[in-house]
UniProtKB/TrEMBL annotation:
Keywords linked to the UniProt accession: Hydrolase, Signal
Gene Ontology MF term list: arylsulfatase activity; glucuronate-2-sulfatase activity
PANTHER family linked to this entry: ARYLSULFATASE K (PTHR46615)
UniProt EC number: 3.1.6.1
Protein name per UniProt: Arylsulfatase
Lineage: Bacteria, Pseudomonadati, Planctomycetota, Planctomycetia, Pirellulales
UniProt keyword Cytoplasm present: no
Length: 501
């Protein structure tokens, strides 16, 4: 259905009328916090072995609900953050959103029934502005949904990836604190929606000196040398590999070959140093979140605020021999996700099976705001209130920012299927994992003596790719059918090598 260019006057008046029926004190606030590139396995509430200290986020998890199954649907661009953030803002699926600044990376653009021209009018801030909320955002610039970002009443965007107060994450925190101080000064009692985004721990991961020292790392800049080893550095990832075992459709992307401090290196010194840099940046984010939460508490707003914490996607940094976000393994397809707020039982966990695109429907549901007619997400409020554990059974993922068709995956229960279609390299690969038994998605290469010596982990025999094991033919057949069905349902414009049109 083609969306009308403007809301009718009647609809607008109805929206305003509904907003006026509840007093400001009864309407909860929303604080949506999003990091730029963060694997869930960096955080202790997902990985007890992690060396990353995030006491504020740990407390948020203890006071709220942790989602063990939160995902970003995928990307048709090497800049995975672009479609991810478009989905957050619009509540639409990956093949139904525009590219940034009309770059036409999504093949479905141009079809107004799939990608509405007037979609910015139905994105997060526009919806909440009409509902009587004050809206504010701070985040990085670039690789985002510019037209949707402009809908916020207050916008303080800048890319801050340095190691000082002014050039790093503290800058984003200051914008939120300044906004809250102004509300306090003017006695503004309207409910608020704050989009609190960071530019870190995306590279370049220039941490503050004290936090770099804590994690034994340096801001390494010399491509001809390796950083010095340090016992304070994070341990090697359990699923580290010296290289990915085959061409996955985009191994030459910038994130895999040109990140300052890493480049093409996958050795222990490089990976552990880079993880230390990432942890330094992530702990700094935690510190800034703490300042904002303290301010909300001092203002008496904390108990009436739903707080969301997530990232736009995960990251590899050595896992499976990869460095970036252009893959569909769990460390990258999954995202951290925590919610605290009224009616959410402290210390709870749920699988969820949510996508980031479900956020818009959910915050509308929590605040009594009607979701826009363009929304395709599903509210996970029933999960937050403990009524159900998941909102869907099947999850779909895509990456085709490089050679097409690229990668696809589907997950149901503990079973996950991944497929790689790279015609120029003659690559037609299928992977099948039982994530309950093989959570790190170990491959045959992880069983080699050289890799075991590096990681200190010896995988069990069954912890491998099961795609060609006859014992699991039924599981593979089911997931192959589910993948093709999801591709069709979601308007994926591609067909894989072994699929029928």
């Amino acid at each position: 259905m083609i969306i009308a260019t403007r809301m009718t006057l009647a609809c607008l008046l109805l929206t305003v009328g509904l907003a006026a029926t509840a007093s400001a004190a009864e309407r909860p606030n929303i604080l949506f916090i999003i990091a730029d590139d963060q694997s869930p396995f960096d955080l202790k509430f997902y990985n007890q072995e992690s060396k990353l200290d995030t006491p504020v986020l740990d407390q948020l998890a203890a006071d709220g609900m942790v989602f063990d199954g939160a995902y970003q649907m995928g990307s048709w661009s090497g800049a995975v953050c672009t479609p991810s953030r478009h989905m957050v803002m619009s509540g639409r699926t990956v093949w139904h959103i525009p590219s940034r600044l009309n770059r036409k990376r999504n093949p479905n653009e141009g079809d107004n029934q799939l990608v509405p021209d007037n979609l910015p009018e139905y994105t997060m801030a526009a919806v909440f502005n009409r509902a009587g909320y004050d809206t504010m955002r701070t985040c990085k610039k670039g690789n985002s949904y510019d037209a949707a970002n402009k809908q916020f009443t207050v916008v303080k965007d800048a890319t801050k990836r340095g190691g000082t107060e002014e050039s790093g994450s503290a800058w984003h925190g200051k914008q939120v604190l300044d906004y809250l101080n102004e509300r306090e000064k003017t006695k503004d009692k309207d409910p608020f929606l704050i989009y609190f985004g960071f530019s870190h721990p995306h590279d370049t991961r220039d941490g503050t000196p004290e936090l770099l020292e804590k994690y034994g790392s340096i801001n390494h800049t010399k491509s001809t040398t390796l950083p010095e080893p340090n016992d304070k550095q994070p341990q090697m990832p359990p699923n580290w590999l010296p290289k990915h075992p085959f061409e996955n459709s985009h191994l030459n992307v910038r994130d895999e070959v040109a990140v300052s401090g890493v480049w093409k290196n996958r050795d222990e010194a490089t990976i552990r140093n880079e993880l230390g840099r990432e942890f330094a940046c992530s702990e700094n984010i935690d510190i800034q979140i703490g300042k904002v939460l303290n301010k909300l508490e001092a203002m008496g707003e904390l108990d009436n605020t739903y707080i969301f914490y997530t990232a736009d996607h995960g990251m590899a940094i050595g896992r499976h021999g990869l460095q970036g976000k252009q893959n569909l393994y769990q460390h990258t397809w999954r995202v951290p996700f925590v919610v605290k707020g009224p009616g959410i039982k402290p210390g709870t966990r749920a699988e969820g099976n949510i996508y980031l695109l479900d956020v818009l429907a959910t915050i509308c549901d929590l605040t009594g705001v009607d979701p826009p007619e363009t929304n395709e997400g599903t509210s996970f409020k029933p999960v937050l209130t403990g009524e159900q554990d998941t909102i869907r059974d099947v999850l779909y993922g895509v990456y085709c920012g490089g050679e097409k068709p690229g990668m696809r995956c589907v997950k149901k229960g503990d079973w996950k299927l991944l497929k790689y279609d790279v015609p120029s390299a003659g690559v037609h690969q299928t992977q099948l994992f039982n994530l309950a038994e093989n959570p790190h998605e170990f491959l045959p290469q992880h069983h080699s003596k050289e890799v075991i010596a590096m990681t200190g982990i010896t995988p069990e025999k069954h912890q491998t790719n099961l795609a060609d094991d006859p014992k699991y033919a039924a599981q593979r057949k089911e997931l192959e059918a589910l993948l093709q069905a999801e591709m069709k349902r979601l308007d994926d414009p591609f067909v894989l090598w072994d699929q029928k049109n």
